[in-house]
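Letters spell out the chain; the tokens describe the backbone. To illustrate:

===
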Amino acid sequence: MGCERRTSFLGVPTPCYIPATVAGNMPHLTPDNCAKLADLSLVGVNFGELFSSMAFLEQTKMDFKSYLHLPNECKVIFSITDVTNMPIARNTKTQTKSMRSFESSNGRKQITADEYMKAVNQYAPSSFLALADEVDPTFGYKRQQTAVETSIAWLDECIAARPADTPVLGVLVGGNEPRLRDISVKETVKRAIDGVAISGFGGGETQAFREATLLSYQTTVPAALPRLLLNIGQPLDVLASVGLGVDAFMSSYPLIVTKFAYALVFWTDNESTAEAMETTKINLRDKQYERDARPLLPGCSCFACARHSRAYINHLLNVHEMLADVLLYMHNMHHYYAFFAAIRASIANGTFERYRDEFTTKYTQ
């Protein structure tokens, strides 16, 4: 595939999907439902959602994962990037070179690198993204240049204060400016980091620019460093990015699909989805499903498909019952994980390019 392929990230087989929490929890899912997702082994937690809880956790000495209702074996990547609400930081009036603005449950707040690292040390995540000046990629050259310079300065502060043996990912910024992207990556990889997080995509850039940038990272990012791509989740975009060396994806794609009452039904080259449909997703609000006794995806082994029909979920949606979102999200997460499992299998078999091309010919987005 044109680059050396890493096989794991924080002990999780790659390429992998990393869901993001909402308000500090897995959206729609109770702890017992989380346990039904066998592949839920790594999640991204946005610090902004926990900002107002720091004092409570410090006073009670409550375990971080218990507070989040995550399985004990689940690993956590800590960041201040909200992939459920991208692009971020459109309003930069309160952003300075010493303080990062972010949205919390109590409104817009500011934090220094020192304060951020205090939180990292307090919560002890499995890994964390360095504090970075992530702004809307459509902002002008001077603002993007400031973002690059500030992010490098904050990275140095984060590395100096990092907990022992906790991997840190440097964040690559630069917006839609190739020269600034190049400066960002070259300065970032000079530091003692354990991987890179690629920020600033998914906000309206052209596919050609995104793929050209990822291609350039194949030579500028050392082969040993894992690459985490933020906010890219569409299946065709995932396949293209995997082909360009990306190891992990943190996005809200299954959550967004669920929000609009869709169920993922695309082919994954997996026996459990042998009856996948000609489209990537179906809208369960559609009247055509009100008497459809089939599961969301025939052959799928997820909790929702094993127990409920399209007609039942159509009914739940039409009466605004929250169980509809629970069942849809469980299915969509299960199916999306199966998609990544199929990608890993194709890489292991040496057939990734064929799999990517076959998938691409089947679907348009």
User: Anything to note?
Assistant: The chain has two domains: 8-258, 261-364. The chain is about 40% helix and 15% strand. The longest helix spans residues 323-348. Residues 87-94 have pLDDT under 50 and may be disordered.
